[in-house]
Design a protein that fits this description.
Helices cover 32% and strands 8% of the residues. With 529 residues, the protein is mainly α. The protein has a three-stranded antiparallel sheet, with no helix packed on it. A three-stranded mixed sheet has the order 2-4-3. Strands 5-6 form a two-stranded antiparallel sheet. GO terms for molecular function: identical protein binding; metal ion binding; tyrosinase activity.
Length: 529
């Protein structure tokens, strides 16, 4: 009870990160298209008086998009968030937040000047106390309403272009479930028509940066509602697993004794209600998910379609994926070949990197294996295993970044599917984040992974690999240069010896005076090679 009361107080006092800020979810803000709330610290919009930020026009990317979405002006998420707001807070320095009242990821302190790096750990390496605390934090988030954010229950058109706001409250945990749904939902085209080939968080370059930002925001929310500033998301290392090691009542919930599709009554998660799982119903009604309860979490791990996902991913699958040098390729969607992103996401074979729609590998394999709420994209975040799974996927992304050290320019600037270009803002986050901002090492964002800090052989290999790859690329040139240098050295040496012999056999009376004798010993140091 004390933890619940403390959490409720903290969530009231501190801002969160997510969808529509409550202070901007009103007719005035929607009609003016401005979301620049005052910062509590000085009472001015965006904390301008304290030089935290200012209210500015949003700067949208003009880079061309890929051909996957052939419409314009039919989806509220196009050019996010311009349908709702075209002026928001632009924060300075290390400040962040919809009112510039927070610190950027990786910074803390009164003026956001203190660097911090927290460590995410394997869930099986947590103590019993730490593990129980994590489970309690999850349950707390499921039951505490977000005080700073609300969700939209209608499109901008259904809101009569802002004059009839349609928003509702939601819990902290369900806010993130709803955001994941909103980013991946189908486009409503009117009548009973929808466009399914659209996703602002999957099947394209933004998949990894989007989920990296998503987890960071989720992690920060837990820190705030609990007051535990050192909390980090644990990860589940599923490489070479024979079954779902976290699917028991000690961790994320075991099987129901009479219904294998449900969770054990002994698990706190058995009482959770899922939201945003009935996509076909929403589409037929041309409506958005309203976040009402739709039944319990469903999970039946291992009883999935074996022809699609015969097993959980192996260490070899991960290592092959990490060896891929291209972050993105070709169409930059689920048909991309030899793409690290597409292979890790699971649309390309983890042994060949060739796109294979009939199979689900790596990231996708875990979702299919769970055979329940986690197996449907839009509602997958309902199952709390989602955060453990995606934390480990993010760690693989981190290993690739450390191994290949890509420049920001490696992330596509243009022609990616809608919402996935480097400078596109991520849907549906406010404050605004661009995809490219999270295409960087995790330590720059304030966190690391325990197994990447260990001085193990694989960590040394990750460090050494990029240099070996560079050496292989220039090996022929190095050999050629060495041979050429040897030849040149031999010729010069022979020429010098010949000159010396000639000098020794010539009388000083008939030998021309070329240089002063005191300078002669220095002649070889003046040669240019």
């Amino acid at each position: 009870m004390l933890l619940f009361a403390l959490g409720f107080l903290l969530v009231i006092l501190q801002p969160s990160s997510g969808q529509f800020p409550r202070v901007c979810a009103n007719m005035e803000s929607l009609l003016s298209k401005e979301c620049c709330p005052p910062w509590d610290g000085d009472g001015t919009p965006c904390g301008e008086l304290s030089s935290r930020g200012s209210c500015q026009n949003i700067l949208l990317s003009q880079a061309p998009l890929g051909p996957q979405f052939p419409f314009s002006g039919v989806d509220d998420r196009e050019d996010w968030p311009s349908v709702f707001y075209n002026r928001t807070c632009r924060c300075e320095g290390n400040f962040m937040g919809f009112d510039c009242g927070e610190c950027k990821f990786g910074f803390s302190g009164l003026n956001c000047t203190e660097r911090q790096v927290r460590t995410r750990r394997n869930i099986f390496q947590l103590t019993t106390s730490e593990k129980n605390k994590f489970l309690a934090y999850l349950n707390l988030a499921k039951n505490i309403p977000s005080q700073d954010y609300v969700i939209a229950t209608g499109t901008y058109t259904q809101m009569n272009n802002g004059s009839n706001p349609m928003f509702r409250d939601i819990s902290v945990y369900d806010l993130f479930v709803w955001m994941h749904y909103y980013a991946s939902r189908d486009t409503l085209l009117g009548g009973s028509n929808v466009w399914r080939d659209i996703d602002f968080a999957h099947e394209a370059p933004g998949f990894l940066p989007w989920h990296r930002a998503f987890l960071l925001m989720w992690e920060r929310q837990i820190q705030k509602i609990t007051g535990d500033e050192n909390f980090t998301i644990p990860y589940w290392d599923w490489r070479d697993a024979e079954d779902c090691g976290v699917c028991n009542d000690e961790y994320m919930g075991g099987r129901h004794p009479t219904n294998p599709n449900l969770l054990s009554p002994a698990s706190i998660f058995s009482s959770w209600q899922v939201i945003c799982t009935r996509s076909e119903e929403y589409n037929s009604q041309q409506a958005l998910c309203s976040a009402t309860g739709e039944g319990p979490i469903r999970r039946n791990p291992g009883n999935n379609d074996k022809s699609r996902t015969p097993r959980l991913p192996s260490s070899a699958d991960v290592e092959f994926c990490l060896s891929l040098t291209q972050y993105e390729s070709g169409t930059m969607d689920k048909r991309a070949n030899y793409s690290f992103r597409n292979t890790l996401e699971g649309f390309a074979d983890p042994q060949t990197a060739i796109s294979n729609p009939s199979q689900s590998g790596l990231h996708n394999a875990l979702h299919i294996y769970m055979n329940g709420s986690m197996s449907q994209v839009q509602g997958s975040a309902n199952d709390p295993i989602f955060v453990l799974h995606h934390a480990f996927v993010d760690s693989i992304f981190e290993r690739w970044l450390r191994r290949h050290r890509p420049m920001l320019e490696v992330y596509p600037a243009a022609n990616a599917p809608i919402g996935h270009n480097r400078e596109n803002y991520m849907v549906p986050f406010i404050p605004l984040y661009r995809n490219g901002e999270f295409f960087k090492p995790s330590r720059d964002l304030g966190y690391d992974y325990a197994y990447l800090q260990e001085p193990a052989l694989e960590s040394f290999q990750d460090f050494l690999t990029p240099y070996l790859q560079q050496a292989r690329q220039i090996w022929a040139w190095l050999v050629g240069a060495a041979v050429f240098g040897s030849v040149v050295t031999a010729v010069i040496t022979r020429h010098i010896r010949t000159c010396r012999k000639k000098k020794e056999g010539t009388s000083s009376e008939i030998q021309p005076l070329l240089i002063e004798s005191e300078d002669y010993n220095n002649i070889t140091y003046q040669s240019n090679f």
